[in-house]
Amino acid sequence: MEKCSLLIENATVMTDFETVEKNLDIAVYGEKITAVVKHGERDFSAKKVIRGKGKLVMPGLIDSHMHTGQQLLKGLVLDAKPIIWTRVMLPFESTLTPEKMRLSAQVAALEMIKSGTTGFVDAGSYHMDAAAEVYAESGLRGCLSYSTMDEEGLPDTIAMDAKQAVKETDSLYDRWQNQGNLKVYYSLRALNSCSDHLTQLAAGHAKERGAMLQAHMNEYQGEVDGIIRREGMRPYEYLEKMGVLSSRFLGAHSLILSEEEKEIIKKYGVKVCHCPFSNCGKAVPDTPDLVQRGIFPGFGSDGAAHGGLSLWNELRIFRSLMNIYHGVPNRNPKVMPAELLFQMLFEGGAAAIDEVGQCGRIKEGYKADFITISLDTGRLIPSGNLLHTIFECGEAGDVRDMVVGGKCLMENREVKALDEERIRVEVENYMEKEGMNQ
Ligand SMILES: [Zn+2]
């Protein structure tokens, strides 16, 4: 008898982005998967067993770019006039308090767990300690940042100089790096909000600690043009000149890229991700070309204010966008096949959360970050190709169980560490009190 802490018994398993196998047992010991074998092939004695019948087990979804601090803006951004960042997001974030952040993180954690997202990167906000406490308790695998910028004219509550801005991340790092499943990333909010001094300082502190550095990159034409005007070169060229690029840099969005910038991303092994629904108002990336160069972007939600945190929607929006923009003109219906999109989600996502070769597969030695999907709902049967059906028809509501680092965060849709009912009442009361529920 082999001992294990958790056994998923006789399930259908999407072991990676292109393989679905039936009748497998998955054994977990501690935080890792210790065996994936044919049902009954080995004898396990498990502390806890999840029956796999009627379920698909698949790697947890990874949100490579979200904003806890914008969680309460859900429903308040759609159809807003540009530029949303200066008109809506920035004024709202400048009013954040520890209380708002605690509530935002609770609602975000619930939404992620219930939609199957096991890991995420927060692009950075304020009062991050309050969010970190909630995320540590939730058990999610989270990479957190402090919103870092030093441009002139910011609201008083969030205005700071370069030294102070980086110091905030230093403190966050000291308190939360490797606490539970949390990591801390250094960040540059966007290049046009950061001075040369801040860019170098944040990059230097990240390097000293071996931490990741992230920034919003090449998202708007106006932002790219602004850097060209200020620096006489494009955003990634500027970062290369500043010496801050490496495989420990995550460039969110990365939509409007020159040939030279794509080569720079490749050369340094920079990690990138797209946020399809949010990006639709900005630009269409040339992802087929990135993939051809061996660059696999992950997917992000860009926070709940852009269509919620479910990545199921993002995958299909992206597939549709790629087909109409790159597939149809080239008569190529397979410009973004489901297998490739899952590869981007799992492997691009694992890269974004700095877990390459550790997360994103159901394989011996990998971290036990996975979800189960109910297969006995009408929408998923019958299916001639389960991987394609899950891609086309899978939804947040189909997720039944979630395991992160070997721990059960949700069982049969019941979230373990968070009080769902209490949080719902609290956030609705809050929205009412603030007059935010039109
Ligand atoms: Zn963002």
Describe this structure in words.
With 438 residues, the protein is α/β, with parallel strands linked by helices. It contains 14 helices and 18 strands. It folds into two domains: 2-59 and 367-415, Roll (Urease, subunit C, domain 1), CATH 2.30.40; 61-352, TIM Barrel, CATH 3.20.20.140. 37% of the residues lie in helices and 23% in strands. β1 (2-14) and β2 form a beta hairpin. α4 (162-176) packs parallel to α5. It is globular and about 65 Å long. The mean pLDDT is 96. Zinc ion binds at residues 65, 67, 123, 216, 252, 302. The site of zinc ion (ZN) has 6 residues, from loops.
List the helices and strands and how they pair.
Elements lengths: L1 E13 L5 E10 L2 E7 L5 E8 L3 E5 L1 E6 L17 H10 L4 H18 L1 E6 L5 H11 L2 E4 L17 H15 L5 E3 L1 E5 L5 H14 L3 E5 L3 H11 L3 H7 L7 E5 L5 H10 L2 E4 L1 H4 L7 H6 L5 E2 L11 H17 L10 H15 L17 E5 L11 H8 L5 E6 L2 E5 L2 E2 L4 H15 L4
Parallel strand pairs: 1-4, 1-5, 6-7, 7-8, 8-9, 10-11, 11-12, 12-13, 13-14
Antiparallel strand pairs: 1-2, 2-3, 5-15, 15-16, 16-17, 17-18
